[in-house]
Design brief:
Elements: H1 2-5, E1 9-15, H2 22-31, H3 51-62, H4 68-84, E2 87-94, H5 104-125, E3 128-136, H6 141-153, E4 159-165, H7 177-185, E5 189-194, H8 200-209, E6 213-218, H9 226-234, E7 238-241, H10 243-248, H11 260-265, E8 269-272, H12 284-295, H13 299-312, H14 317-323
Parallel strand pairs: 1-2, 2-3, 3-4, 4-5, 5-6, 6-7, 7-8
The protein binds hypoxanthine (HPA) and zinc ion.
The site of hypoxanthine has 9 residues, from loops.
């Protein structure tokens, strides 16, 4: 087991604000004299009832991140946590909606601070971090366009992709085609959350209605349609699977009922991530430990997952080569 847990890990699906340790958010709330007591349990962890409530607690926690400097501090905290898990490369979802409200000028200031912290963190912690600009589905297509504009203006070697998170039950993937097209034209690679709450049709919509989609956040409910699994396998669409998140939020009742093993068996490209680790009481090490125990996976499978993740990473070839 030690060999598995100590493997150098590649993580593709990590929400920047969702990686904030509760103590970090509580500290900021105190500094800013903001009462956030409602979002914490007595034991100090985040308190929410279900996915939609999770999203509102997430937004409340994020409300005390007030300026570029706070996001830079969060970046350092996130990289420190990732390093503890043996993560060597990570892609994180950053939302212009929380960093200047979609204004390009403000976004550039936030991004500059985050990027400086990421570069310092790479030296301190040995983790290489890249950003995926992420629009928020339940904020609607107009806000998504503003996020895509921010993404397009800062596309490059640090911002490598454009994605969408938020409430999958709101609107349709195709409503956001304009934004995804704008990001793709700026050279960004694409991923979107799909098939976590809605079924396989949502995953199919993501890969048919959004041109150039390369990865799917979650995507696990594709397992309900064998033909769709074949399409994903054939097109080498990579799933960013977050098993602990799915079990914690009740998408599946327990890890042994999770389809990650079946998806792999069907030839779908599968990777493992944490999503929002402190919210779901997980870390990448814990994910590996639970998967190894539940499915009796050996180190060879985890090595394969990491290879798949590095292949599907949105960074350039030189960065990948340096990580290998
Ligand atoms: N799923 C969807 N949207 C999100 C999440 C998540 O886990 N975290 C932050 N935004
Ligand atoms: Zn997610």
């Amino acid at each position: 087991m030690a060999r598995i847990l100590d493997l150098p890990k590649v993580e593709l699906h990590l929400h920047f604000e969702g990686a904030a340790p509760p103590a970090f958010i509580r500290g900021l709330a105190q500094e800013k004299k903001t009462d956030l007591s409602k979002i914490f349990r007595a034991d100090g962890s985040y308190a929410y009832r279900d996915f939609v409530h999770f999203l509102s607690v997430y937004e409340a926690a994020t409300s005390v991140l007030k300026g570029p400097e706070d996001f830079a501090r969060l970046c350092t905290a996130l990289m420190e946590e990732s390093a503890k898990d043996g993560v060597v490369y990570s892609e994180t979802f950053v939302s212009p909606d929380f960093c200047g409200g979609g204004d390009v000028g403000a976004w550039k200031e936030y991004l500059h601070a985050i990027r400086e912290a990421a570069e310092a963190g790479e030296k301190t912690y040995g983790v290489t971090l890249r950003g995926i600009v992420t629009c928020i589905r339940h904020f609607g297509p107009d806000k998504a366009k503003a996020a895509a504009r921010c993404a397009a203006e800062t596309a490059g070697d640090w911002i490598t992709g454009f994605g969408m998170g938020g409430d999958e039950n709101m609107g349709e993937q195709g409503d956001f085609a304009y934004s995804f097209d704008m990001a793709a034209e700026a050279g960004l690679r694409l991923t979107t959350h799909a098939g976590e709450w809605r079924g396989p049709r949502e995953v199919e919509n993501a890969v048919t209605d959004l041109r150039g989609m390369e990865r799917i956040g979650h995507g696990v409910r594709a397992i309900e349609d064998p033909r769709l699994c074949d399409i994903l396998a054939e097109r080498e669409i990579t799933l960013e699977v977050c098993p602990g998140s799915n079990v914690f939020l009740g998408v599946y009742p327990s890890l042994d009922k999770h389809p990650i093993q079946q998806l792999r068996a069907r030839g779908v490209k599968v990777t493992v991530s944490t999503d929002d680790p402190p919210f779901f009481h997980t870390t990448l090490r814990k994910e590996y430990e639970r998967l190894a125990k539940t499915f009796r996976w050996g180190a060879d499978i985890f090595q394969d997952l990491n290879r798949t993740a590095l292949d599907a990473a949105f960074c350039d070839a030189a960065t990948k080569e340096a990580i290998k």
